[in-house]
Write a structure and sequence with these properties.
Elements (H helix, E strand, L loop, with lengths): L1 H10 L26 H10 L1 H18 L9 H10 L3 H9 L7 H9 L6 H26 L2 H12 L2 H7 L5 H21 L2 H17 L3 H15 L1 H6 L2 H31 L12 H10 L4 H21 L1 H21 L13 H11 L1 H7 L4 H22 L7 H11 L5 E5 L4 H7 L2 H4 L2 E4 L3 H9 L6 E6 L2 H4 L4 H9 L1 E2 L8 E6 L1
Parallel strand pairs: 1-2, 1-3
Antiparallel strand pairs: 3-5, 4-5
Helix pairs in contact: 2-3, 3-7, 3-8, 4-6, 7-8, 7-9, 7-10, 7-18, 8-18, 8-20, 10-11, 10-12, 11-14, 12-17, 15-16, 16-17, 16-18, 17-18, 21-22, 24-26
Length: 510
Amino acid sequence: MAKKKGERRHEKEPQPQVECDLDGGYQFPIRSIKDLTPENIRAAVVHSRYAQTLLLLTITGLVLRFYNLGYNSLWLDEASTYTISANSFSQIWQTTAGGEFNPPLFYWTEHVMLMLGNNEIVLRFIPALLGALTIPLFYIIGKEFLDRNTGLVAAAACAFSPFLIYYSQEARAYMMMLFFIVLATVFFLKAMRSASLKHWVLFGLFSALAFWAHFYALVMIAALVLYALIAWAPRILAEYNNLKMLVVGVVVFILLSSPLVLVTLRLFITRTASAPTYGIQGLGIILETFRQISGFNDIAMVLLLALFVIGIIGTFRTGKDRFFFLVIVTILTFVISYVLSFRMPMLPRYLIFLSIAFFTGIAVSYLLLYSLWRTKAVVYGFIVLLVLINALSLAGYYSGYSKEDWRGFSTALAGKTSPGDLVVSVPGYISQPLDYYYSSAKSQTREYGATTEADLEKIAAERGNSTVYFVMTGDISAADPGGDAVAWLRNNTQFAGTDVTKEIYLLTKS
């Protein structure tokens, strides 16, 4: 009986009363999955401004994510996705167990997609689709966090985010990880309110799927569990059953993730065994993450950070639990990332899940303006403001290449080489995007890979009378941090035309 009373008490917790009701009192017909009938869906779309606006945001976000999906050629990491995903399911797992720094779930999904064809659109289809489906989930997070208006503004921030659009158009696991961690957060917020076993189990399930998509999801999962322990401390002391519910969610996550545990520990030890040769270290990861999540734009970053701070202050007034949610997720993410940045490569895209707290905090800031100007136009105005803030970055993104143009480079390279020439990738692993577009068999050339000065010397000594073309990218700095390979190329080669493409350099030694 104590359990049922405790659950009823949690379910009846007062929610913030917000006068800004876009529906003007209309009772939304869909309260649970059971209510998802054609009649209720039609009624909601016809009569609810929330349903109409969310549908428009989702469709717009879908278009933005699928527009020009195949325009950019695959870059190194995407070509690596193809290389790994082309293997069998068991081989993909063996690749992860053997040292690949990404879990296998996304590669397994891409393996299935490759059965439909092999091109940029096929490889990027799943991230684009999941990116669009994440938009309504941001609405649910905002709604569960505070109210439906917060949900709409958070959904708009997601829909028009250049950062999320960029990674929705990249054949990597970041958007899959975000999709599942957002789903986990939805059920986490529901579980925190209802203390329902079902919600805690679903939290554990989707947290595990996020972890199977990307190892760094563990940081967000840890932040949520820490927040639950802090926010529920009085409840746990008063009613031990609440701790059992949280433990169930964690146990579900551990059981479903258990095959990855040893692999994760081994990879973590390997990756932190020496100082990183690329990435962002120290406090720079904080500033650069905010800049990228804000659309790779400094002015947008300042505006959005201001709204985020206002939102955090607003949550302190509406409920301290909400305040601590945003603060704990943000601070713990950055503290862990700061520490790890000195031991492993750290990039803002690993922190993509921080957009949950960032966009939710921004969405809450609408309350300040509404307190000064009590009109429904405030919510719509915030959506328009987010469009305007992101418009410049989006215009730049869609107006040109945002990735290395290996497609164009390979075409130009094929036009320069002659039968019998040597093509050397520096460092060797950039042969993956090169070979996706360039065929040495068709061009009748020979391909080699080189990373060190010794590699280059050996190839040069064995070239005979052949012309050697060296294909080099900035990755050589990470692969050969001592700079010996770059020095050798500087002293022994010359540019073979700088008009081929940006960020990929073609050198020759005849």
